[in-house]
Design a protein that fits this description.
- The complex is a heterodimer of chains A (324) and B (261).
- Chain A is mostly helical.
- Chain A contains 16 helices and 4 strands.
- Chain A starts with a helix and ends with a helix.
- Chain B is α/β, with parallel strands linked by helices and 261 residues long.
- Chain B has 8 helices and 12 strands.
- In chain B, helix 5 runs parallel beside helix 6.
- The longest helix of chain B is centred in the last third of the chain and has 16 residues.
- Classes of the chains: A mainly alpha (324), B alpha/beta (261).
- Chains A and B meet through helix 1, helix 11 and helix 12 of A and helix 2, strand 8 and helix 4 of B.
- Bound molecules: adenosine-5'-diphosphate (ADP) and magnesium ion.
C-alpha cells in the first residue's frame, strides 16, 4: 500500500520549496526586510549602528504587539479596525487614572481592562449580532476615540514616572524593555496559536466556520476571544505608548491601525482567515519600522513615508496572490 | 463478501432502539424541509435512509447531529429525550457524523482535522499543550485502517483527492467511541476499491455494536448492507421496511412516489 507516502510529503525538501511561489509569498516579509537592510546600509552606514538598531527595535515594539492582536483577528477571517483607537482609549484611561493619584500598577490594569472590554464588546456584537466585522470595528474606531476625547477632555496628560521612563529607555544590551515585552508577547502568541486547542480552533473558525461548528466548536466564543485578545494587546500597547511619549494623549494614532494591518499582510497571513503565522507579521512590523527609519536617515521628507509604506503593502498583497 | 448471513431474517428479535425521531418538523423560512418525520435506528444494525435530492435526508441528519434544532417533534437517544443545543452536545452524547460536505477544514492537516475539537493535550501545570506526536501517531493508525491511497497525516486537506477527503471524514467519525455513526452519502465520491473499504468499515462498526444510519443513493448497496430502510420524499418519511421483507423495486417505487407509502 501507499504507506511510503506517509513520510514523503510530510516535510517538503528545501530545493522543492525554493521553487515554490507560495514559499516566497509566505516569506516575503523576511526577504523584503533583508533587501531593505542591505540597501539602507549601503546608502548610509549608520543604519546598522547599534544605537540605530536599538531605537528601531523600541519603535517596533508597539507595532509588533498590535500586529499580533490583529493576526488573531484576521486568522478568524475578521479585521479589527478599532485597534489603534482602543489603544488610544487605553492610554487615556491610564493617564486619567494616574492623574487621579493611582500608582503605576492599578493604572495599567485599568487601561488593560478598558481596552480588553472594548475588544470584547466588538466580539460580542460580531458573534451574537452577526454583523460584519469591519462595520462593528469601524463603529468602535469612532466610539473609542470619542470616548477617549471625552475622558481626556481633549487634553493630553503629562506623566513623569521613573519606572515608566525606564520602561522606555532601559533594557538589556540593545534590547529595550518594550521590545523584550513585545518578544514575550509574540512567543506566547505563537505557542497559543500552534500548540493549544484554542489556537487550532481559531484557525478552524477562520478557515471553515461551518466545519468548525459541525465539530462542536463554538465559533461565537472563538470570535469573542480573539477580539478580546486584540483589545487587551491594544491596552498593553497603550501603556508602552504612554511610556514612550511621556504623556497620555487622545490622539488618533491612525498610522498604527494601517501599519498593524500592513504588517499582517506583509507577514503572509491570509485575509480570508484560516492561515496565519506570528513570526510573519512580526517581521512585517520590523520591515515597516526599518523602512520609515531608513528613509528618515537618508533625509527623505516625512511626506514620502506613507507613500512608501503604501507601495510596499500593495506589492506584498500582489505577491500574496501566489500563495496557495 | 457475501452479505446473505448478515441479513436479518424476519424472526430475528428486534434490538434496542437507540435513535428514535418522533414527528420531527423543521422549516427554513417558507421551505418546509421536514414534516413530522419519524424514524428509528437500532444498535448493532445498519439503518439506511434513502430519497431523492432535496427530500430532507441531510436536514434530518443535521437535526440529530445537533446542527439544527427541530421546530417540533422529539429526538430520543439511548432512551432519553435529547435537547441538543450544539453539535458538541450530540458528540458528547455519542453521535458522530460524516456530513455530506465532510466538515473538514482545508487549511488544517489531516491529523488536525481528525482530532478537531477532540485534541489530545499534555498538561504542564496550568497550561495544556497539544500532544502533536500522539495525535499524529493515532491518526496514522486511524487512516491506514481505511484508506486505499493513504494520505500523509501531515499534509493539508486542501491537497487531498476527493476520495481521500471522504476517507478522512469517515475515519474521524469512526475513530471516537460513539454509539451512533451517521454517514451522509459516505461513498458518493469513492472509487470501487474505496467503496468496498468503507463498506467493510461499516460492517465492522456494526459488529462492534454501533448503530449506523447511512444515507445512500446506491440501492444495490442499501439492499446489501442494511437491516432497515426508511424512505423520504418531499420532507416526509413515506415508508419504512425491514430490508429482508422488501425489494429494490419497492424501495424505488416509494422514492419516486409510484407507491403511496
Ligand atoms: N440551511 C438551509 N437553509 C435553507 N434551506 C435549506 C437548508 N438546508 C436544506 N434546505 C432545503 O431543505 C430541503 C431538504 O434539503 P436536504 O435535507 O439537503 O435534502 P437531501 O439531503 O435529502 O438531498 C431542500 O429543499 C433544501 O433546499
Ligand atoms: Mg443531502
Amino acid at each position: 500500500m501507499a504507506n511510503t507516502t506517509l513520510t514523503a510529503s510530510e516535510g517538503q525538501s528545501w530545493p522543492a520549496r525554493l521553487k515554490d511561489a507560495s514559499f516566497w509569498a509566505e516569506w516575503a516579509a523576511l526577504v523584503g526586510l533583508i533587501a531593505l537592510v542591505i540597501v539602507f546600509q549601503a546608502l548610509n552606514p549608520t543604519f546598522l549602528s547599534l544605537g540605530n538598531i536599538a531605537s528601531m527595535l523600541v519603535a517596533a515594539a508597539i507595532l509588533i504587539i498590535l500586529a499580533v492582536g490583529q493576526t488573531y483577528v484576521i486568522a478568524t477571517a475578521g479585521i479589527d479596525l478599532s485597534i489603534a483607537s482602543v489603544m488610544t482609549l487605553g492610554a487615556v484611561v491610564f493617564g486619567q487614572a494616574y492623574a487621579a493619584g493611582l500608582s503605576l500598577a492599578p493604572a495599567s490594569l485599568l487601561a488593560l481592562f478598558a481596552s480588553a472590554l472594548a475588544g470584547a464588546v466588538n466580539g460580542m456584537i460580531i458573534a451574537w449580532g452577526k454583523i460584519a466585522d469591519f462595520i462593528v470595528t469601524l463603529g468602535m474606531l469612532s466610539a473609542a476615540s470619542g470616548l477617549a476625547l471625552i475622558l481626556a477632555d481633549g487634553k493630553p496628560v503629562t506623566i513623569i514616572d521613573p519606572l515608566l521612563l525606564s520602561l522606555s529607555t532601559g533594557g538589556i544590551g540593545i534590547f529595550g524593555w518594550s521590545f523584550i515585552i513585545a518578544v514575550v508577547v509574540a512567543v506566547a502568541a505563537h505557542v497559543v496559536l500552534f500548540r493549544s486547542r484554542f489556537g487550532t480552533h481559531v484557525l478552524a473558525t477562520g478557515g471553515a466556520p461551518e466545519s468548525a461548528t459541525a465539530m462542536g466548536i463554538s465559533t461565537a466564543r472563538i470570535k469573542i476571544a480573539v477580539y478580546l485578545i486584540s483589545g487587551a494587546l491594544a491596552g498593553l500597547g497603550a501603556i508602552l505608548l504612554v511610556a514612550r511619549i511621556g504623556a497620555a494623549e487622545p490622539a488618533a494614532n491612525t498610522a498604527f491601525l494601517l501599519n498593524s494591518v500592513a504588517a499582517v499582510v506583509l507577514g503572509g497571513v491570509s485575509l480570508f482567515g484560516g492561515r496565519a503565522t506570528i513570526v510573519g507579521p512580526c517581521i512585517g512590523a520590523l520591515l515597516l519600522v526599518a523602512l520609515v527609519n531608513g528613509l528618515t536617515l537618508l533625509g527623505v521628507s516625512q511626506f514620502y513615508q506613507p507613500l512608501a509604506v503604501g507601495i510596499v503593502v500593495v506589492l506584498a498583497a500582489l505577491l500574496m496572490r501566489f500563495q496557495q | 463478501m457475501t452479505q446473505m448471513t448478515d441479513r436479518p431474517t424476519p424472526d430475528t428479535p428486534t434490538r434496542d432502539v437507540l435513535l428514535d425521531c418522533r414527528d420531527v418538523s423543521l422549516a427554513f423560512g417558507n421551505v418546509q424541509a421536514l414534516v413530522d418525520v419519524s424514524i428509528t435506528s437500532r444498535a448493532g444494525e445498519i439503518t439506511a435512509l434513502v430519497g431523492d435530492n432535496g427530500a430532507g435526508k441531510s436536514t434530518l441528519v443535521r437535526c440529530v447531529a445537533g446542527i439544527h434544532r427541530p421546530d417540533s417533534g422529539q429526538i430520543l437517544f439511548d432512551g432519553a429525550a435529547t435537547n441538543f443545543h450544539s453539535p458538541e452536545d450530540a458528540r458528547e452524547a455519542g453521535i458522530e457524523t460524516v456530513h455530506q460536505n465532510l466538515a473538514l477544514v482545508e487549511d488544517l492537516t489531516v491529523w488536525q482535522n481528525l482530532f478537531l475539537n477532540r485534541e489530545i493535550v499534555r498538561r504542564l501545570g496550568p497550561v495544556a499543550l497539544l500532544d502533536r506526536r500522539a495525535m499524529r501517531d493515532r491518526s496514522r493508525e486511524m487512516v491506514s485502517a481505511l484508506a486505499v491511497n493513504v494520505p500523509a497525516v501531515g499534509s493539508r486537506v486542501r491537497r487531498l483527492s476527493g476520495g481521500q477527503r471522504q476517507a478522512v471524514a469517515i475515519c474521524r467519525a469512526a475513530g471516537f467511541s460513539s454509539k451512533l455513526v451517521i454517514m451522509d452519502e459516505p461513498t458518493a465520491a469513492l472509487g470501487v476499491q474505496e467503496t468496498a473499504r468503507v463498506e467493510e468499515l461499516i460492517l465492522r462498526l456494526r459488529d462492534e455494536g454501533h448503530a449506523l444510519l447511512v444515507i445512500s443513493h446506491n440501492f444495490e448497496q442499501v439492499m446489501r448492507l442494511s437491516h432497515q430502510v426508511w424512505v423520504m420524499r418531499a420532507g416526509r418519511c413515506v415508508g419504512g421496511r425491514r430490508t429482508a421483507d422488501t425489494t429494490g423495486e419497492e424501495i424505488v417505487a416509494l422514492v419516486t412516489g409510484a407507491l403511496g407509502g
